[in-house]
Design brief:
9% strand; alpha+beta; Transferase(Phosphotransferase), domain 1; 606 residues; 49% helix
């Protein structure tokens, strides 16, 4: 049943218009009569008498799960939950109203591929949402990413608007109970081959980007071939195409493994694009650069006989007939009309500054491509060359830092992130700096960087969690407990945080409290080795050897490559008089970590 305009729900919400309809119900725009002028969106559960009782029960379950999910999430790019109610036997919930158009509507209106710069900018924003969802404990998997579920507001901001089939990832589960999602954008995992996880959302977002950049739906369960996207949009950069192809790999292990990694690859592609026509002067393009040239002017000669695009300023190869960036026809050098004498001879020709700016752009583009291809040393070299040539921007330094971290150059990476943060203070740059300093063994510098990150993003639970770990490493137990409790407030029932709090209590020799935290962690995440390991250690410290041995056996089973788990298990076996098993566990520990002095010493004693 469709609600008519003017219908009042719950004596408070007056229906203004129907916004859309999906598999589980309709969404309406409503005005709050208690707060005149305030508009919300109301979602109503389907009311179809032809639907079977089983389907109605399924839809009601999904409806309730969406309410539960939205009510506990807080992100600027997710509609805020407001209220829920039942009226006339029908169920409703109220959420923030998001004005604008879905990307599906934008495609329909454009009848053409959407601009690469716009798509990359929107998708970086969507990745921000996914990073937040995937960081929840347990992670939240959207499973139905597609253009119709992504809204762009009139100001150009992007929002994710439908969580009707989102689910939580269940560790150790082989496959989904229900395999849902729109087939065009669904990964192989959606079909039940394995359980959908964060990488499934990466595939779906990659398929969404494919559709937006080509105006053609991707073939289900098919990885695009190189050059396929650029057949639809000739000016599309190779780097962007390469990133989309990687995101759509059928083997999840070949995709980006985290949405943060995917986001940085997209951001690097965006940064490497030439500035848009009419862009104002910036550090990336001087005011007299070809990027601000009159589009009606013939293409200028570029260094070494190349041709500069009159629209976007891209430096094309010699003899090119069309711009490789936006497909605009180019005027070859031989056909250009003779240059007119300059009206003011003393003024330097604009093309005299082109080589530096264009070369810097090329280096930045190559750095992006190298990073996306996993060639981190080349990414470092090209990023440094771009900086030397004048492209010393936030994004280039951020890319440089990430490439250096991949190469194990943690100290250099920290300095690159610090420079990125100096150019544009951001929680992301400060967080990455903190992680790099921690990897470099500089706990105090890491602590300072994470503290700056928290000032910039006080609602990010990962930041106090990292601060708590650093304080624990430094022996600052009271501060560690405070930071970890803050993290637990922001991210409730997080197993990793509970394990860290357990370690704090072990360090204080308050083993009863440690066991309490660790049992909660194990109950929440029974497939995570760390909880079992620390619980086993705490129980062994209390003299509860059978329980400790059981937990340590489980830790070693879940993490067979962990020397730490094997050493602790060997100690438990030794304490219980099981010398043969102790020797086996300790030998495994030494094989995994030849520098494990504790295992070596105990083995010698036996």
């Amino acid at each position: 049943m469709t609600l008519a305009s003017g219908t009042v729900l719950a004596n408070r919400y007056r229906v203004l218009a129907r916004l859309g309809e999906g598999g589980m119900g309709s969404v309406y725009q409503v005005e709050d009569l208690k707060r005149p002028g305030v508009v919300y969106a109301v979602k109503a559960l389907l009311d179809d008498t032809t639907t079977s009782p089983e389907d109605m029960a399924w839809a009601a379950k999904r409806f309730d799960e969406e309410i539960t999910l939205l009510s506990r999430l807080s992100h600027p790019r997710i509609p805020a939950f407001v209220d829920r109610f039942t009226e006339g036997g029908r169920r409703y919930f109220v959420m923030e109203y998001i004005p604008g158009m879905t990307l599906e509507q934008r495609l329909e209106r454009a009848h053409a591929p959407l601009p690469e710069r716009d798509v990359l900018g929107w998708m970086v924003g969507v990745c921000d949402v996914l990073a937040y969802l995937h960081s929840q404990r347990p992670p939240i998997i959207v499973r139905d990413l597609k253009p119709g579920n992504i809204m762009v507001t009139p100001s150009g901001d992007v929002r994710l608007i439908d969580f009707g089939i989102a689910r939580t990832y269940k560790a150790g589960k082989a496959s989904n109970t229900e395999n849902l999602g729109t087939m065009t954008y669904a990964s192989p995992e959606h079909l039940g081959q394995t359980q959908t996880d964060a990488r499934s959302d990466i595939y779906s977002l990659g398929a969404t980007i494919y559709h937006l950049l080509t105006n053609a739906e991707p073939a289900p369960l098919e990885t695009p071939a190189p050059g396929q996207l650029r057949k639809y949009q000739p000016g599309l950069s190779e780097a962007t195409e390469r990133v989309v192809i990687r995101a759509m790999k059928l083997n999840a292990a070949e995709r980006f493994q985290t949405v943060v990694e995917f986001r940085e690859a997209l951001r690097a592609c965006l940064d490497a694009l030439p500035a848009p026509v009419g862009a104002t002067a910036s550090a990336q393009a001087p005011a007299s650069s070809p990027r601000t040239a009159n589009p009606a002017r013939p293409a200028s000669a570029a260094p070494s006989g190349g041709v500069i695009c009159p629209r976007c300023g891209y430096f094309n190869r010699p003899g090119a007939r069309f711009c490789a960036n936006d497909g605009v026809p180019l005027v070859p050098s031989a056909k250009r009309p003779p240059a007119k004498p300059a009206a003011r001879p003393q003024a330097a020709p604009a093309t005299r500054i082109v080589p530096t700016a264009t070369t810097a752009d090329l280096y930045a583009r190559k750095a992006t491509e190298a990073f996306g291809a996993g060639k981190y040393l080349q990414a470092v070299q090209q990023s440094e060359a771009a900086i030397t040539q004048g492209r010393a921007t936030y994004d280039v330094y951020l890319l440089l830092g990430r490439a250096q971290r991949q190469l194990g150059r943690a100290g250099e990476a920290a300095h690159a992130f610090a420079e990125a943060g100096r150019l544009r203070p951001s929680a992301e740059a400060a967080y990455q700096e903190g992680m790099a300093w921690r990897e470099a063994g500089e706990a105090l510098k890491a602590q300072l960087a994470f503290s700056r990150a928290r000032q910039l993003d006080p609602r990010n639970a990962e930041i106090p969690y990292q601060l708590g770990l650093i304080c624990l490493e430094m022996g600052q137990l009271a501060q560690a407990e405070g930071e970890l409790r803050d993290a637990l407030t922001l991210r409730q029932d997080d197993g990793a945080t509970l394990v860290a709090l357990g370690k704090v209590e072990i360090a204080r020799q308050r083993l009863d409290e440690a066991v309490e935290y660790l049992r909660r962690a194990v109950a929440l995440e029974p497939r995570e080795s760390a909880g079992h390991l620390e619980l086993g250690r705490a129980l062994m410290g209390m003299g509860r050897l059978p329980e400790a041995t059981k937990e340590l056996e489980q830790a070693a089973k879940l993490a067979p490559e962990s020397a730490e788990a094997q050493t602790s298990l060997g100690m438990a076996y030794h304490a219980g008089g099981r010398r043969s098993q102790a020797r086996t566990a300790l030998k495994k520990a030494i094989a995994l970590n030849p520098r494990d002095a504790e295992a070596q010493q105990l083995l010698k004693q036996m």
